[in-house]
Specification:
Blueprint (H helix, E strand, L loop, with lengths): L1 H11 L5 H25 L6 H15 L2 H5 L1 H25 L8 H24 L6 H75 L6 H31 L8 E3 L1 H11 L1 H6 L3 E6 L7 E3 L1 H18 L5 E8 L3 E7 L29 H11 L3 E6 L6 E7 L21 E5 L3 H12 L4 E5 L2 H10 L4 E5 L7 H8 L11 E5 L4 H9 L4 E4 L4 H11 L3 H4 L6 E2 L2
Parallel strand pairs: 2-4, 8-9, 8-10, 10-11, 11-12
Antiparallel strand pairs: 1-3, 4-5, 5-7, 6-7, 12-13
Helix pairs in contact: 1-2, 1-7, 2-3, 2-5, 5-6, 6-7, 7-8, 7-13, 8-12, 9-11, 11-12, 14-15
């Protein structure tokens, strides 16, 4: 466009120098194909070199004709005709592409058409000999229109480019959201499919482990089965946590808790594994650590536990693992071991997904990646350094959590004072049988329902203390069955309902609570979590909403 503008000005200006006219014609012959080619490239079409040089070829061939070379009017007419043709072609190239809703496209089309018509008029005037009669007004029009056209097209092309970038960004975000939603749905489905059989494996292992008639070797086999099941469950949980963090669906809470107590609880959970390997566990809490800090104790313990399990796993028999908690304006937690350390060449992979430092050891390869992301979401940082003295590793978790006032500690829910009548609604016979065994072992009475519709009928007919309701059932799902139970008159409509779900996604828990359920237990069902839920059934509605589970109604 700039070439065309300069060429048109040179041709229109009343300059005596013939070179200026020839230069103007050359610039016009170059600008037309250049604009047309740029328009095709902008519209994602292949350039056509043969067509682009056709105008110049025609001009050169015409120059071999003596009559054409001697006629200024003929040269002007052909130059403007070629320029008009390429400008029309440029407008057509922009107009034909309708795959993008660019608001500036019609403006570019209109401006190019006006410019092409002006070229054509100039060619017609030159061809008919009327050029000299209106030379003054025509020159004025050309001198004004040429720079305005160039500036206007430049501005419009900037607008079109910006619009295209915005559309591409929006399309990319929409595609990313769709991909994230598809991954979330896939993970939710796979979580459900894996947790359902795991519920039976871990549940029966818990029941068998409590059987006093088991021989020592049989108990060891049961414990091996339970450990394998828990490892598989940890892999599923790691994948879900990673998906939640990456999709931005991961919430971080802030409430007062004791760092010393949280650290001691984490150390207690790995003590058995450490004893088996004769690993010494040490806890150091600096005097500067506040009694209470404000943060997410669950996520904090998740990271610390992950680091401790790794330390115990990689530390050889007879070694030591130290958990240190300090405070220098931020909460600093270190886990140090006397293991082999991490080779320097593997350090760049340390916090990446599915990174395995030792291919012999089991694990998903997600633990450190999730821990690093959790630290970042909590506003902190997880880093690695070699141990200060001798071989080993030192992981440091720094969190910007300040001192907080102690929160009142609620009294734990008392154990049920009497045997309860519990309705178990689940379409899978094995799940009902497992819950029956766990509940009857505690002295409770169990009524079974094979689906949501049957659960509603039994809730209306029976005097129940609570319902354990599966979420996904073919005839009527748990949330809808609960909505209908809430419409029952009297005590039947107020019976506590606890969802039992193999879907660990937060959206599922919210749907259950919105439907009127009181809490959500995630499969595989833990014996202690089930007992806590049963204890909560005896409380008033305001209290039982605090029952342990993956989610509760506030």
């Amino acid at each position: 466009m700039g070439l065309g503008c300069a060429g048109l000005v040179l041709m229109a200006a009343p300059l005596p120098v013939v070179l200026s006219r020839d230069l103007g014609k050359a610039l016009l012959l170059l600008s037309g194909p250049a604009s047309w080619t740029a328009a095709r490239v902008f519209c994602h079409r292949r350039p056509r070199p043969v067509v682009a040089v056709a105008g110049a070829v025609v001009w050169l061939l015409a120059c071999r004709i003596p009559a054409f070379s001697a006629s200024e009017a003929a040269q002007m007419a052909m130059t403007c005709a070629i320029g008009s043709g390429y400008t029309f072609a440029t407008a057509a190239a922009l107009r034909r592409t309708q795959d993008e809703a660019l608001r500036a496209r019609p403006l570019a089309f209109a401006l190019l058409l006006f410019h092409a018509v002006l070229y054509a008029a100039r060619a017609a005037l030159a061809a008919t000999g009327l050029d000299d009669a209106i030379a003054g007004p025509l020159v004025t029009i050309l001198l004004v229109e040429a720079p305005l056209h160039t500036i206007g097209m430049a501005f419009i092309l900037v607008l079109m480019t910006r619009e295209r970038a915005e559309l591409a960004t929006a399309a990319g975000l929409a595609e990313a959201r769709q991909a994230a939603d598809a991954r979330r749905r896939f993970l939710a489905h796979m979580s459900h499919e894996v947790r359902t059989p795991l519920n039976g494996v871990l549940g029966l292992a818990q029941v068998l482990r409590r059987d006093p008639a088991l021989r020592a070797d049989q108990r060891q086999h049961v414990e091996t089965i339970e450990a394998a099941g828990r490892h598989l469950l940890s892999v599923v949980n790691d994948a879900l946590d990673l998906a939640k963090i990456d999709s931005g669906r991961f919430d971080v809470a802030s409430r007062p808790f004791s760092p010393a107590a949280a650290a001691a609880a984490c150390l207690a959970l790995v003590r058995t594994a450490a004893i088996d390997k004769r690993i010494a566990l040490r806890l150091h809490v600096a005097a500067a650590v506040p009694p209470m800090v404000a943060g997410d104790t669950t996520r904090y313990q998740q990271v610390v536990l992950n680091l401790l399990w790794n330390a115990v796993k990689f530390t050889p028999d007879g070694g030591a693992v130290t958990l240190s908690v300090g405070f220098d304006g931020t909460l600093v937690t270190e886990v140090t071991d006397t293991g082999p350390g991490i080779p320097r060449n593997l350090l760049p992979l340390l916090f990446q997904d599915f990174a395995r430092i030792d291919q012999v050891q089991d694990g998903s390869g997600l633990g450190l990646a999730i821990s690093a992301r959790l630290a970042d979401r909590m506003g902190g940082r997880l880093s690695y350094q070699p141990a200060r003295n001798g071989p080993g590793s030192r992981f440091q978790l720094s969190l910007p959590w300040g001192e907080a006032a102690a929160a009142p500690v609620p009294d734990p829910p008392p154990a049920p004072e009497r045997a309860l009548i519990i309705l178990v609604a689940d379409d899978v016979p094995g799940n009902r049988a497992l819950l029956r065994m766990l509940l009857e072992a505690e002295g409770h009475t169990v009524i079974e329902a094979r689906g949501g519709a049957e659960a509603i009928a039994l809730a209306a007919q029976s005097r129940l203390d609570g319902i354990l309701m599966d979420v996904r059932m073919p005839d009527l799902d748990g949330p809808e069955a609960t909505r209908r139970i809430r419409l029952l008159p009297g005590a039947a409509g107020r019976v506590p309902v606890i969802a039992v779900s193999a879907d660990a996604m937060a959206e599922t828990a919210r749907d259950c609570l919105d439907a009127g359920m009181d809490a959500v237990l995630t499969k595989p069902i833990e014996h202690d979590a089930l007992l806590a839920a049963l204890s909560g059934l005896m409380q008033d509605p305001a209290t039982r909403a605090r029952v342990a589970g993956t989610a509760t109604r506030s």
